[in-house]
Amino acid sequence: MTKTAHKTALEGVLVLDLSRVLAGPWASQLLADLGADVIKVERPGAGDDTRSWGPPFLTNEAGETTDAAYYLSANRNKRSVAIDMASEEGADIIRRLAAKADILVENFKVGGLKKYGLDYESLKRVNPRLVYCSITGFGQTGPYAPRTGYDFMIQAMGGLMSITGQPDGAPGAEPMKVGVAVADLFSGMYAANAMLAALRHAERTGEGQHVDVALFDCQIAMLANQASNYLVSGAAPTRMGNAHPNLTPYQVFATADGFIVVATGNDGQFAAFSRVIARPDLPRDPRFSNSRSRVMNRAALIAEIVPELKKETSAHWLAAFEEAVVPAGPINTIDAVFADPQAKARGMAVAMPRADAPDQLYVPHPVKYSETPALSDRAPPTLGQHTDEVLRDFLGLQGEEVSALKKTGVLG
């Protein structure tokens, strides 16, 4: 394994990653970014399902397609080993690696790993300090525990789609999913946080534990203020398009040549906004004088604002709002995001060389650390790229023994 030149926060932490698709790989990728040695265990010949979830795909110099962009988004800074866990020999190899690991993360169906002797209770016997994280659709308990859960259905069942999309009666009104798999991504982030908390406990006490992460639970938790709005009022929030349930003006507005977002969060910002659009009278109107009254009289306020913003271009308004310290911004396409000088200054696209794509850019870990910078130098691995070195370094397997296991299909 190539060692980084700088110290990392999780140096020396060994993570065995049995997960695939997004929530689990996203969680383990966060740990890998922070310096953990993440060993991604994949099926020989096929690997993580997302390797084939394209287009687009990487294309090598011979014009052959390799891994899908989807896979690349969630697997940087890891090592890949190809092991058939369905075989007795493969399961034994994984158990031996788990005996040395600090953390194991998996997202199989509830009970799915027990038949291989890779469930928590089995591995706890060989490694009592192991932090074992299971990520499933509905968790290890409850009536839905046996069900398979995918991000789209979790966004629906967990309430997010009921508050996303245009309101009933508006053009295009229907419940809408978010443009990325946020239930998976939030679950992965909750899982990473939970694994680090459990690791801290294990380091203090020598006691591992089973961390049970459910997409459904995490989706409910990420409803945040909307869940609280319901629990306080008893009224279920509904779809409001781009409007905010607790603030206004806080939405998309049309300009003379396009659209912008305005996001005023307090009375001072609203007063500044009103001056910029040449309507200093608005904050003096009792209907709009404070945040609560503005929300109660939302329709009347928006009716006053809309014609004013249509008088000038987006560029005009954005410059004027920036000067007045009013939160506002353009609605960028993704190509515009990466062209933005702020994204460039923050290094939000970096090259991580791979044999089949030496100059390919990737999104790196987004957090900046003053003493333990995150890794941004190891591209997502090819399938089984590190099988030989991992088995040699951790288990002492090499030479003819490894070759024989490859011939029988136990290793890829």
Give your account of this protein's structure.
The chain is 36% helix and 13% strand. The chain has 16 helices and 13 strands. The radius of gyration is 25 Å and the shape is elongated.
Instruction: Give the overall average pLDDT.
Output: 96
**Order of adjacent strands in the largest pleated sheet:** 5-2-1-6-7-8
Distance between the termini: 19 Å
* Gyration radius from CA atoms, angstroms: 25 Å
Name of the CATH architecture of the largest domain: 3-Layer(aba) Sandwich
Shape descriptor: elongated
Q: Structural class from helices and strands? A: alpha/beta
CATH homologous superfamily label of the largest domain:
Crotonobetainyl-coa:carnitine coa-transferase, domain 1
- What can be said about the biggest beta sheet? 6 strands, parallel
Assembly type: single chain
Strands, count: 13
Number of helices: 16
Q: Which range best describes the helical content: under 10%, 10-25%, 25-40%, 40-55%, 55-70% or over 70%?
A: 25-40%
- CATH topology assignment of the largest domain: Rossmann fold
The total tally of domains equals: 2
Could you give the order of the helices and strands?
Answer: EHEEEHEHEHEHHEHHEEHHHHEHHEEHH
Low-confidence stretches: none
